Automatic annotation (TrEMBL):
Pfam families (UniProt xref): AMP-binding, AMP-binding_C
Native organism: Micromonospora fulviviridis
Domain AMP-dependent synthetase/ligase positions: 27-383
Keyword annotations of the record: Ligase
Top-level taxon: Bacteria
Family label: Belongs to the ATP-dependent AMP-binding enzyme family.
Protein name: Long-chain fatty acid--CoA ligase
Length: 523
């Protein structure tokens, strides 16, 4: 059977998806007009024709630097028009775009540079010190292209040979387009390789679930180094000839003002952003009349937050996905949110989903187990990590690591994470990584990191630390050590010293006991 064709068991779940209103949002016109605005940032706008010209020029610059098909082009900077220009230009020459997280510490970025071995690092001046510090200790030595210099070179290319396409490469749907780093339970980041086909199919799955077109304006403040910011609405909007308004960072007041100023019709948000907007003093006065829908994800949102948006006549569609799925797997169906305010939704049309039960069986439809995913949007593997790639699949299904309950009506609820990831402000914090860095201190015998509910960030980390006999260590020393090694959002909000860690009969740490203890910290 063709890989994209549903089995008889799967048709039932997909049928439920259609019954619950996918596609019920009015259809939008989908035709790209060269003179239409494609991108806006502050007072600068680019039409589709201008964007195409700039992409050609940037591609010529990269090719002139010797970048070849299959080479990696790393990019470090906040959201910017240049992010899209470098992304599309990299694809034009058959190279692989590697967006780096500006919230990471220099040591973390250094590791990713050494892992992907880029030919070029494109560096935004706003984070230049971070990039330079990462390169200072890196084993690799990519060409450094500062964004200001890149713009000058691009202008020169446009003037000298604006129509030269000799650098363009033939690519297939199977060729890699992106490497996006996502942490794992081992504590080391892994580069998920997304092909041109993965990204294209994700766009189609989004558009089968929701409708977009030339009269849509997507407001993007979610970081473009994440699949939420880049692939969830943003690329679908450009695919259908809509407009993307780029914001370099998220600030609730500015975002609410921008919704009105640009007559935004849709936007992707991390779950914490959704709550921050609802809680902001400008919420009641904000003009949301043009907003058709919001897609959010990263962690569950409390029912009252969803209800507040619904009361403003905005469809809020919770989604569930991961970098390895480009990212779409589940999304709430338009028209069904009020009855399922805490559900992660139903499967995207071109995504097959199953459950791996505790006894090792793969089942379809209602039930509970680890969520399994299959489809043309599933990544091709982790960069240079074949063993890690193989470990994430079972019988051709990608293992999400999340325990999900699927009800009889087909709507899914995420219950827990097998890999114990903490989602803080939409960012993944992996306990093993934090524990590894704390364990670098000589005075530490062992430690365990668990999540704590937090009103602002959804979840934060709490570290339980056991010291070696006769050693002394205070919380400030631990935090200073972490600040030099990890991004701020990964640093525990709470540090608790214990004489021992609770363990079960087999010697494993009883994290549920620590979670119960951690709840008292935020009470």
């Amino acid at each position: 059977m063709d890989e994209l064709s549903p089995t008889t068991d799967e048709i039932g779940w997909r049928g439920l998806m259609i019954d619950h209103g996918i596609g019920s949002l009015p259809r939008r016109r989908a035709r790209i007009t060269p003179a239409a605005i494609a991108l806006i940032q502050n007072d600068v706008s680019l039409t589709y024709a201008e964007l195409a010209q700039r992409v050609d020029a940037v591609a010529a610059v990269l090719a002139g630097l010797g970048v070849l098909a299959g080479d990696r082009v790393a990019y470090l900077g906040p959201n910017d028009l240049a992010t899209f220009e470098v992304l599309f230009a990299t694809a034009r020459i058959g190279a692989i775009f590697v967006p780096l997280n500006t919230r990471l510490a220099a040591e973390e970025i250094r590791y990713q540079l050494d892992d992907c071995v880029p030919a070029v690092l494109v560096l935004d001046p706003r984070v230049e010190s971070l990039g330079v510090n990462a390169l200072a200790s890196a084993a690799v030595c990519p060409m450094l292209l500062r964004l200001d210099d890149a713009y000058e070179a691009t202008a020169a290319c446009q003037a000298s040979h604006p129509s030269d396409a000799g650098y363009m490469a033939d690519v297939t749907m199977q060729d890699p387009a992106l490497i996006m780093y996502t942490s794992g339970t081992s504590g080391r980041a892994k580069g998920a390789v997304l092909t041109h086909g993965n990204i294209t199919w994700n766009i189609l799955t989004q558009l089968a679930h929701i409708s977009m077109g030339t009269d849509d304006a997507v407001l993007c403040a979610a970081p473009l180094f994440h699949v939420l910011g880049l692939c969830q609405l943003t690329l679908p909007a450009l695919y259908t000839g809509g407009k993307v308004v780029v914001m370099d960072s998220f600030h609730a007041a500015e975002f609410l003002a921008a919704i009105s100023r640009h007559r935004a019709t849709a936007f992707p948000l991390a779950s914490t952003m959704l709550a921050m907007l609802r809680d902001h003093p400008d919420w009641d006065a904000a003009d949301l009349s043009g907003v058709r829908f919001v897609v959010f994800g990263g962690s569950p949102v409390a029912g009252p937050v969803v209800q507040a948006w619904l009361d403003r006549q905005v469809e809020v569609l919770q989604g569930y996905g991961m970098t390895e799925a480009s990212p779409g797997v589940l999304m709430a169906a338009p028209g069904g949110v009020r009855e399922h305010t805490t559900s992660a939704g139903v499967p995207h049309y071109f995504t097959d989903v199953a459950l791996l039960t505790a006894d090792g069986k793969i089942v379809h439809g209602p039930g509970q187990g680890e969520l399994l995913v299959k489809g043309p949007n599933i990544f091709s593997g982790y960069w240079r990590k074949p063993e890690a790639t193989a470990a994430t699949f079972v019988d051709g299904w990608y293992r999400s690591g999340d325990v999900v309950r699927v009800d009889e009506d087909g709507w899914a609820y995420v219950l827990d994470r097998l890999n114990a990831v903490i989602i803080s402000g939409g960012e993944n914090v992996y306990p093993a990584e934090v524990e590894r860095v704390i364990g670098e201190l000589d005075a530490v015998a062992e430690c365990a990191v668990v999540p704590v509910q937090d009103r602002r960030w959804g979840e934060v980390a709490a570290a339980f630390v056991v010291l070696r006999p006769g050693q002394e260590l205070d919380e400030l020393t631990i935090l200073r050590h972490l600040q030099s090694k990890l991004a701020r959002y990964k640093i525990p909000k709470y540090v608790v010293f214990r004489t021992t860690l609770p363990r079960n009969a087999t010697g494993k740490i009883q994290r549920l006991v620590l979670r119960d203890e951690a709840r008292k910290l935020s009470a």
